[in-house]
Design brief:
The complex is a heterodimer of chains A (539) and B (623). By secondary structure, chain A is mainly alpha-helical. Chain A contains 21 helices and five strands. In chain A, strands 4-3-5 form a three-stranded antiparallel β-sheet. In chain A, strands 1-2 form a two-stranded antiparallel ribbon. In chain A, a hairpin with a 2-residue loop joins strand 3 and strand 4. Chain B is mainly alpha-helical. Classes of the chains: A mainly alpha (539), B mainly alpha (623).
């Protein structure tokens, strides 16, 4: 009987074919995250934080090295017109030029963020994260936790899970994988947001808000996926593309799918009118987490948005481009204008990140894929470069924020920053460089980034949007320069903040960010070439 | 040797730089280095000139390109220097007279504690002027042009502790800027039209260019020339420039600076040959200036200002000659050279007088200095005879030729030039009488005395040149020498024989002299400037109201415009900008209101956003 069962003519279940070599960076980060959980369970508390730090940093470095290997192994193409790389993981992932470059960006941002996570000198030997999240803020047990020097070293595995979620998000080739990736990147971040050591109520409020609104947007995203499936009969981006090109299904269903999927993704990049969470969460979250989110989430979500809209909905771009143009303008305007009246550095940076989402959308809406024989910047490469410049400056700026402190922790009120240039010229100078890059002043990466996205939009036929964009960046320059004026040309207030002396970790982050920001501005060639030669998305 | 023209410039330039950076220990011998540099340049120039003499007439132009100065796209400028017949004469004049002025300055500036710096500036002045005349490209010429402007600024304002000197330096600089603008525009136009600013190439291309181009070029170059040569309407800086030490006045008026404009016109002869309008403009400017300068010269009691008016007038003669085309170029240069001799002579003589009169410049306080300063009187007298054009002194030959050529062009132009000669005789005689001849009117504390040897020797040398400078004309040497550069002159037949014209000119000069003698010997000269004088004298004293005109036409409107612009900037532009910023702040305050911090309102915003996006997409598709 047993043999008959074995010999029965049952259908063969084919083992899924996984391209382990191609996907190794993802496995490395996931493995490190799982290992981190095990370390959390079994390693003695006294040295756990250090072990987790080393593990995370080494893991990211290994993944970064492997990403470079993967990138060089992708089929070489000369121009940006063609795609390089392949669909992998049974159609779930697309390991292509833009995707792998995004991995690289995310891993660099992740590495810098981990260094900020690991900074323990600023709080007298403790991290910026609460020691015992379960304690009520201000309670006796919280004080006890501080006294016992308890720390949550889970932040590292959490961040690693978020990081792998981001990497998946940027390379997801079907909508379901994309949704899973979205949740994998979001859930750890919700937690991390609530773990601030100082101003814990604000931090917990931020976490809850982020969670609620994130869940809300996820629902729209999921509903959009369902409608897209209903329209195309598949989750795969290329299959949806075929359906859109052939116009097989109900037009209204497609439009609704586009709209709802857009909402989910626009929420993550912080575009208006789905930006409302950004200031509250950026302000409340522990600053290292804010840095990680600002750089990482935006990068991953923007590449995901670009991939979905270029690959799956590229055939109906004339339907969605006008709406995205409107969103881009509103986002640029809102971010730039509301930033003017902010009095808190972190909130100001949050609005700045909203404005940058708008500028990125300008490049995105150009949908310029390049022309044979021309070396003009494509939309995808302009976005990649912009994200690199923006991410570096963001992490650097938030790293500076962690250092300007008084007895209550970070002093984020802008008025307290007056005259910082006189007391700490190096620190204020670094911050000024980040501000100039955000404002898009030449010799910083931000300038080349803005030039890139505007150029892509122009090539895509949106010359008037470029004019609007330039006007908006003039508007945005106002509040960036205002901070510089405040730091350098205003007398310090009496009880000004003290600038804490950080350990090597934060110093390295700020130096790398400054060098990177200036390097991208003065010698943009290599990175611009890299982005340009990443090619198009695979389908 | 003929390729060493750069060295002519390099020697005084290096010396000037050295004197400026060397410390106080060089105060004792700095002036000697400066003088030696100028003399070395002169010796080198003389050797090169001698070599040039030995060559065939066609091969006397030697261009050397030191390096490529500017190479940007189509714009290509070589650092070229050309040593040819024209620049050779200028080199000799500049370095020769310049050296004599250096020597004189050793004595004149002996008690000035900044003498070393003065010599540095003199060297730089010489170097800049040499760059100007040796340049083979208009842009290189412009380099020298601006260098001359800078050096004159530094030297006119050398006694910077005097507010009047500082103001005069500033005025000279600013007025010159107007001319420089014309020069700069001309160079740009050359490049736009001919694709080059090399002098030879431009001169070669000019005959083929349209009238509009050559006329514009000519007028722009004339504007530049008016600035440097103090021609109407840019003459106003020249009289104020007398604030500088007297050797500077001599340098500016005789060997450098004011001759630059004449040089420019002669050097650009192809452009002026091609444009009748530009040529006529040069004639008009020259004629007006020569009469205006003579008028001013009649009215001034300040010896240096009277001489300055005379310079204006004489440069006017040169411009007039240059405007006559090939018929006049050589005579313009000839008069420029003879004028360089006798005007340097007289300015240094005036300096010598001032030296003896405790720096008093008012001729009404002079008188009877003949016996007190015999050498100065004798040398000055030779200069006087030369400038008014008494045969056989230098000025006679050159001025005679210009008036003759002017009559060849047009009767009225000739008449104007003739009238100028008479007036020149009048004011120069007046100056001689008031200074050297008439009765003593010295202030009590003044004890006139002859100047030291170091000052009188240059006077003697220059006086000799003033006397015999006319030999350059021997056998029409100057005309033939310059012919390869400025073109062949067709001889004009005059209505009367040349000898008759010469007699007439001499007669007019004699009338001028006699009139002055009658006028100023009849009754004693007042020791104070009389206030009740004719309207002509008053106008002359006010320099024909040139400054008032500038004030009314340029300065006051500019000031009003400035005030208006300041107002516009403050109220209009700043108001707009701050207004925008304020509105931005208001908008910002308004837009942040929805950011309540309440998660339910955020969710509502999102929901509204979703609805709007869906509607937008539908609307786009339906439309």
């Amino acid at each position: 009987m047993l043999t008959s069962f074995l010999e029965a003519d049952l259908p063969m279940i084919e083992a899924p074919e996984i391209e382990y070599a191609l996907l190794a960076p993802l496995f490395i980060v996931t493995g490190v995250a799982v290992l981190g959980v095990l370390v959390e369970a079994f390693w003695p508390r006294s040295s756990r934080f250090l072990v987790q730090t080393v593990l995370a940093v080494l893991g990211i470095v290994a993944a970064l090295v492997d990403t470079v290997v993967v990138y060089t192994d992708l089929d070489r193409v000369d121009s940006a017109l063609k795609a390089r790389g392949q669909v992998a993981g049974e159609g779930a992932l697309s390991v292509d030029g833009p995707g792998v470059v995004t991995w690289g960006l995310l891993l660099v941002f992740g590495l810098l963020s981990m260094l900020l996570f690991a900074e323990r000198r600023l709080e007298g030997g403790l991290s910026a994260f609460t020691g015992r999240a379960a304690d009520a803020p201000g309670s006796a047990s919280e004080a006890e936790a501080v006294k016992m020097r308890i720390e949550h070293s889970e932040i590292f595995p959490l961040a690693m899970f978020a990081l792998v979620g981001m990497m998946l998000f940027a390379t997801a080739n079907d909508l379901l994988t994309m949704f899973v990736a979205l949740e994998v990147l979001s859930l750890p971040l919700y937690l991390l947001c609530g773990l601030a050591r100082r101003r814990r109520l604000l931090s917990q409020e931020a976490a809850l808000k982020y969670f609620l609104l994130g869940a809300f947007s996820s629902v729209f995203f999921l509903y959009g996926i369902a409608l897209a499936y209903g329209y195309a009969g598949s989750f795969e981006l290329s299959a949806i593309d075929t359906a859109v090109t052939n116009r097989t299904g109900s037009e209204n269903m497609l439009l609704a799918a586009i709209a709802l999927i857009a909402v989910g993704l626009l929420f993550k990049i912080g575009a208006a009118p789905f930006h409302a969470w950004t200031p509250d969460v950026y302000q409340g979250a522990p600053t290292p987490v804010t840095a990680f989110m600002a750089a990482g989430t935006k990068t991953a979500a923007f590449i995901a948005l670009t991939r979905v809209f270029y690959v799956a909905f590229g055939g109906s771009q004339w339907d969605w481009r006008p709406t995205i143009v409107a969103i881009a303008i509103i986002t640029m305007f809102l971010g730039s204008v509301v930033a003017v009246s902010q009095t808190d550095v972190k909130r100001m940076l949050a609005y700045s990140s909203i404005a940058h989402a708008g500028f990125l959308l300008v490049g995105f809406v150009g949908v310029y894929a390049g022309v044979a024989g021309s070396d003009r910047v494509t939309s995808v490469s302009s976005i990649l470069f912009y994200l690199a410049a923006y991410g570096l400056a963001s992490i650097g700026a938030f790293a500076v924020v962690t250092l300007v402190r008084d007895s209550g922790g970070e002093t984020t009120h802008l008025s307290k920053w007056a005259g910082l240039g006189k007391t700490s010229p190096m620190l204020a100078g670094s911050f000024a460089i980040f501000m100039l890059s955000f404002a898009g002043i030449p010799l910083t990466g931000g300038f080349i980034g803005k030039w890139g996205v505007f150029s892509a939009a122009y090539s895509g036929g949106f010359w008037w949007l470029v004019i609007v964009g330039v006007l908006m960046s003039a508007l945005a320059a106002y509040f960036y320069v205002r901070v510089i004026v405040l730091m350098f040309f205003t007398e310090p207030v009496g009880d000004g903040p003290t600038v804490a002396v950080p350990s090597l970790l934060t110093t390295v982050v700020i130096v790398v960010a400054v060098v990177g920001t200036l390097g991208l501005g003065i010698l943009p060639g290599p990175v611009l070439d890299l982005a340009q030669h990443a090619g198009a998305f695979v389908r | 040797m003929l390729d060493l023209q750069w060295l002519l410039i390099a020697i005084p330039l290096a010396s000037g730089a050295l004197l400026l950076v060397w410390g106080k220990e060089s105060d004792r011998f700095g002036h000697l280095i400066g003088t030696a540099a100028s003399a070395a340049s002169f010796v080198l120039g003389a050797i090169m000139f001698a070599e040039l003499l030995g060559e065939n007439a066609e091969e006397r132009s030697h261009a050397v390109s030191l390096f490529t100065w500017i190479d940007a796209g189509r714009f290509h400028v070589e650092m070229t220097f050309v040593f040819d017949q024209l620049s050779a004469l200028f080199v000799l004049l500049i370095t020769g007279v310049g050296t004599l002025i250096h020597v004189y300055s050793i004595g004149y500036m002996a008690h000035d504690e900044r003498r070393r710096r003065f010599f540095a500036f003199l060297n730089i002045f010489i170097a800049a002027m040499l760059t100007l005349v040796l340049a083979g490209d208009y842009l290189v010429l412009f380099l020298g042009w601006e260098g001359v402007g800078l050096a004159s600024y530094l030297l006119i304002g050398f006694w910077q502790h005097k507010p009047s000197a500082a103001a005069a330096a500033k005025k000279a600089f600013v007025v010159n800027r107007v001319g420089d603008l014309g020069m700069a525009l001309a160079i740009m136009l050359m490049f736009a039209q001919f694709g080059t600013s090399a002098i030879e190439a431009v001169n070669a291309a000019a005959p083929g260019a349209t009238d509009t181009v050559t006329t514009s070029l000519g007028l722009l170059l004339l504007l530049g020339a008016c600035g440097k040569s103090a021609q109407v309407p840019l003459q106003s800086w020249l009289l104020d420039a007398m604030e500088g030490p007297t050797p500077v006045s001599a340098l500016i008026h005789a060997a450098t600076m004011v001759t630059a404009g004449v040089y420019l016109v002669v050097r650009s002869n192809a452009i002026f040959d091609a444009s009748e309008v530009a040529r006529n403009a040069v004639i008009v400017v020259g004629l007006v200036t020569l009469l205006a300068g003579a008028w001013i010269g009649c009215a001034k009691d300040d010896i240096k200002k009277a001489l300055a008016g005379s310079t204006m007038s004489q440069i006017g003669y040169m411009m007039l000659a240059a405007g006559l085309g090939p018929a006049g170029y050589a005579f313009a240069i000839f008069h420029l050279i003879t004028h360089g001799f006798f005007k340097a002579n007289m300015f240094l003589g005036a300096g010598s007088v001032m030296h003896g009169m405790d720096d008093d410049v008012d001729m009404r306080h002079y008188g009877g200095l003949r016996s007190m300063m015999p050498v100065t009187f004798a040398t000055f007298g030779l200069g006087y005879l030369a400038i008014i054009g008494v045969p056989p002194f230098a000025g006679f030959w050159s001025k005679d030729k210009i008036i003759e050529a002017a009559f060849g062009q047009n009767f009225w132009v000739g008449l104007g030039a003739l009238l100028g000669a008479g007036v020149t005789a009048f004011y120069m005689t007046r100056l001689m009488i008031m200074t050297f001849l008439s009765e003593k009117r010295w202030r009590e504390e003044v004890h006139p005395h002859e100047s030291p040897r170091v000052m009188t020797w240059p006077l003697i040398a220059l006086a000799a040149l003033s006397a015999v400078g006319g030999i350059l004309l021997l056998g029409d040497w100057v005309s033939e020498w310059l012919e390869p550069v400025v073109g062949h002159a067709e001889h004009h037949e005059l209505a009367v024989p040349a000898i008759v014209l010469t007699l007439i000119i001499t007669l007019v000069v004699a009338v001028g002299v006699v009139a002055a003698v009658v006028f100023y010997r009849r009754e004693p000269i007042a020791a104070e400037t009389p206030s009740s004088v004719s309207i002509f004298a008053r106008a002359g004293r006010h320099e024909l109201y040139g400054n008032e005109l500038n004030e009314a036409v340029v300065v006051r409107p500019t000031r009003h415009l400035t005030r208006f612009l300041v107002w516009l900037d403050g109220k209009g532009i700043d108001g707009f900008v701050t207004g925008v910023a304020d509105r931005l702040g208001d908008t910002s305050q308004f837009l942040r209101k929805p950011q309540t911090g309440l998660v339910r309102s955020y969710a509502l915003t999102m929901f509204g956003g979703v609805a709007i996006i869906i509607l937008c997409l539908l609307a786009v598709t339906l439309a």
